[in-house]
Every structure is written in C-alpha cells, then in structure tokens.
Fold this sequence. Notes:
Elements: H1 2-17, H2 49-62, H3 83-99, H4 103-109, H5 115-126, H6 131-143, H7 151-168, H8 184-203, H9 209-217, H10 224-253, H11 269-272, H12 278-288, H13 296-307, E1 319-323, E2 330-336, E3 342-345, H14 359-364, H15 376-380, H16 386-395, H17 408-414, E4 434-439, E5 452-458, E6 464-469, H18 475-490, E7 496-499, H19 508-514, E8 517-520, H20 530-550, H21 557-568, H22 581-586, E9 601-605, E10 618-626, E11 633-637, E12 643-646, E13 649-652
Parallel strand pairs: 4-7, 7-8
Antiparallel strand pairs: 1-2, 2-3, 4-5, 5-6, 9-10, 9-13, 10-11, 11-12
Amino acid sequence: MVNRQNQNQNVVPHAVLDPAQNPASPYYIHSSDNLAATMVNPPLNDKNYNAWARSMKRALVAKNKFRFVSDEISVPTATDANFEAWDRCNSLIHSWILNSVTISIANSIVFLENACDAWRDLRDRFSQGDLVRIFELHNEISNLKQNSMSVSEYYTELKILLEELEHYRPIPQCRCTVPCRCDVIESVKLFREQDNAIRFLLGLNDSFGVVKSPILMSHPLPSLAKVVSLATQHERQTETEEKGDSLTIVNVAEGKKPPYGKGQFGGSSYRNTRKFCTHYYDDVYSQRGVEEPFTAYQYKRIIDMIHHETTASKKGSENGSASEVQTKRRIGLGSLQPDELYHLVVSSSSSTCFSIQHSSISEINDFSHIIPPGALWHFRLVHLSHDRLLALHTVNNSIDVSKSIVCDVCHLAKQKRKMFTVSFSKAQKCFRLVHMDIWGPLAQASVHNHMYFLTILDDCSRFVWVVLLNNKGEVQQQVNNFITLVKTQFGQTVKAIRSDNGPEFLLPAFYSAQGIVHQRSCVSTPQQNGRVERKHQHILNIARALLFQSKLPKKMWCYFVLHVVFLMNRIPSKLLKNKSPYELLYQEAVDLEMMKVFGSLCFANNLANNRSKLDPRARKSIFLGYKQGMKGYVLMDLISQEIFISRDVIFHEHVLPYKGSNSPAWNCLDLQTHGDSTGEKLNVALEI
C-alpha cells in the first residue's frame, strides 16, 4: 500500500513538470491554435504600426505567448528539455506575425528565425516618432468637419486622430527622485481635454449652434465625453421633432382622424369639435391607456394650424368668407366640401389662380390650385410647350394660349441645365490666372505609393506642372511651394487661382496674405474649370498610349504622366500660334534632339566604383524619362529592377524590351530618395 502511494507521488509530478501539457504554461499550445490564423485585422502596413502593435499584443497576451516576443523567455539551448516546446511556440508565433502583416513586409521578415527578432525588427522600423506625421495629424484634426456624418461618426473619426496624436506626443510624466507635489501634469491633461472638446465643437455643423454657444461660454468647460453626449441628445431631439412635424402636418392636411373609434374624436362629431384643451387632451389618452400620438411641440403646431384656418369658417357652417391670413383682405367665398376642407369659389372670368393660404396645405402640396382658363389646354395636352401650343393655335383658334402663366409643374418636371458657352477669354500675361485641379485616387498606387497628382495650368502660356501626391493633405503645401517658385524663378506674382470647391484648395488666409483672388466653380459644375479638366483628359489619353506601347506595369503610371507633361509643354499648338508652352514661358527654343522613345532599350555605363575588373561595363535598361535639374535620364535596370539616373547612356530606340507579365517580380527603389547624397526628392513634376 505504501509502495503504490509512492509510485503515484512519482508519476504525477512528471506530468506537471511537462510545460507543453500544462495549460498555465506559455509553452502550452491549444488545439485551436493553428499556423494559418490571422491575429489582427487590418494587417500591418507602413502607417498603422501603433494600432497594430497594441492589437497584436492583446492577442498574444490572451494566448499567453507575449513573453516570447518581449524577451522574457530567452532562447534555450538545444540540449534544454524545453527546447522542443519553445521551438514549436516560436514557429507558431512567427506564423501569426507573418499572417498579420502585408505581403511586402512579410517578405522582409520571413527569413528571421526567431519571432522575437521579427517583433523587434518591426518595432525598430515603424515605431519611431515621425514629425511629418505629427504635422499631418494636426492638419487633419483642424480640417475635420462633421458635414454629412452623424455626431457618433464624426466623434469616432476625431477620436482616432486624437489617439494617434497622443501616441506620438504623450503627456510627460514626472521622473524626479522625489515625486513632485504640484499639479502641473493634471493641469496639462485638463488643458488637452479642453482643447479636444473645443476642436469637437468647432467641427460640428451650424445646426448645433444652440448647443455650442452655451458650452463655449460655460466655466469650467465640460469634458469631451459630456460635450459629445449633449451634441448627441440635440441630434436625436432634432430628428424626432422633424419626423414628428412631417407626420403631424400630413395628418392634419389630409383630414385624417385618430384611429381610436367614434365619440368626441371620431365620427361626425369630430368635424364640429373645434375646441381643444391641453388638460382634456392629456386626460383622454391617460384614461384610455393609450400612448400619446403627439409630443407637446407637435400638439402646439396642430393648434397653431387650426387657429390659422380661414377666418370666416364657423362651427357647423356650410359656407364662409375666405380672407388672407396676413392682411385680412377678403378674397372670395368658401364652400365646405365632404373632405372637410373649405374650397374657394372663383368666378370663371378670373384669370388669376387663387388658393387658401392654409399652412398645412402649403407645406404638403405647393401645387394645390385652380387651373386658370388660359392654361387649360396646357394641362389638357400634358404640359405641352408654349411653341407647340402656338402652332396648334394657328390650326384651331379655340385653343387658348397665354404667355403670362408660369407653370411650376413644367419647371419641376422638365427644367434642364443651361448650355455652357464656349469661352475664348485668355489671360494676357503669364501667371495672371492659374488653373488647378486634382486627379485621383487611382485603384493602383504607383511604384512610389502615389495615389493622386496635382495639375497646375497657366492660362496664358498653357504650360502645365504636375505634382505627384500620396494624399490630398499635401495639396496646401504644394500650392504654397508653387507660389514661391513663380516669385523666385520668374519674378512674377500669381494674380488669381481657379479651382473647384475641394476643401484642399480652400486657403482664405493664405490667399489674402498673398493678395491672390481665388475663383471657384459652382457646385457640381466642372465645366467652369474646364481647361484643367480637359488637360487631365489629354494627359491620361497619352499616358494610356505609353502604357500600351511600353507594356510596363500599371504601377509605373507616375512615369507615364511625368513624361507626357514633359512632351506636352514642348509641342507647338494652334491655340498658341504654332508655338509651344515652353517657348512662351521661357522665351527660348525647344531642343528636340533630346527626345527619346519611352520604354526603349538603352545601356547605361556601369560606374567604376560599382564594378570590379571582370564585371560588365554597362547595365541593360529601359528609358523612363527625364529628371528636372539634372542632365541625365531616368532608367530602370532590366536585371535588378532598380530605378536610377545616368548621363552615360546609349539608346536603341527601335527596341522595346519589356515583356510584360513574363518579367520578374518588381523590387524598385524609391525614386524619391534615390539620387545624390542630399536625398533630393523626385516626386515634383519635371517643370517645377
């Protein structure tokens, strides 16, 4: 008996000591844990590391695996008893990380053996504070408006930006040896909370003015959560009142009776029951145990509409005198009809169409009227045009035609937009008028992650500048850069800028400081900014031709666009009296000898510092365009897929070497940083 107990005591500890079988151990792997699982969504990209890292940490902590990537569990030796369990967990965590990042990032960490090394690599690569991103966040927060969003949706958008800014610029904590007793940190937190509340209030629509004013004048200012709660309550109240008002007006205008049977509120007695009392109204519904159909505000509207009925209508009367509500001037006699409304009786000789200005009728149906005799044939022939009626009148004199009648139905049913006249106006000097517009986003980002491009067109010379953009938030800075370029390079001042109503072009303070007139097109009227819109069409047409000619991938569209603009500025135009925009702007002839076939085969000299004695002396490449400010060509190496610039190039323009989908995978270097040691950016157009 004693021996059996000793055996049991020896067996149980071995089972407990095996970490892979202990659910409380980090080495334990549950049956639901698999290599193909995606731990967080969306996956990691180059912009969302902070949110991704937090979500990934929560997932790993829930799986009891975070200590593997936080260096709390070190790598055991191959002879260690826990090595196999550690190796299984390491492979599992590494697979989770690979499944939770984009393909391009996964390819960069797939060859790392340990999950902790992959985690550390991602942290070192993406977690560094970005001053440019902080500046962008400040701009996005200040420009964020509610517009068509609900209060909840607007607050969510603002909260995301504030949380990201808080991560980059957290409130500092006291690190003194002796902790401070002052409340400076708490004051800083309070100030930031008040700033966020004010940002939220200023972004609300004008309809929330009744909420914003009392809050901004209150002292102390409520918290952001309280401000959001007040705005949400106001939004719900407004929606309820608007919905209730529309329902109340429809019921009263159509003469509907409450669906509660006959009696004081039903049957024939309803027509004669004109006296209402608030207390009686409340008592009836409370006694019947029925929920009140109207709010107090809706009930007041009903009473107001009843009091504004025709002034001569009396209890139980069959006829009455109709008067205007405002002037009390008599306009005719009214007759009570079965639909319980007074219909105004108008003599047949009258050509004017009168109607009782009842508030409920006018709100529900603006077309409630009597057809004048002169418009009878117009209505009979289903609102035939005036010209066709005149043609019929020449055939049949009995058809009356009147020019003085204005038919609302025709306007509402058939009115079209006015025709746009061809504009022949042109600025007399360069930069007196500049057109601007944005094109994008494209479904396929460029090889350098561009999604948009800004087009700038001089009205006088028709010279075009193009600036490649990652997002619309860069437009304001690029407009400022262009104004500075014009002053520095041409000694001119931009007089006027014409654009659409995009918020990225709304810079009233900047325009006022520079003395620039900002001309905007009407809403949904791109024709008023047609010159730059047509220029977009021209650019894209030729860019597609270069795409089909060179057979390069669509992600190279940024080079298509830049090369197209380079050529357009150097081609003569009939509009410019057979001169090119380049000649008018720079007052010098164009050198056409430098023109090469886009996408053609070329060989660039391999620099001596990049080769040994037996290495090739040239690089087989493709021509992609020109580089502003450098006497060289932009090329792409066909072997390494590297994009570089060289002046020592020999062209074979009759050969287009790229083979399309059969070419190897792309691994292009970023042209924005590839260049001289100063890291000069190449994302600006060729002419800037």
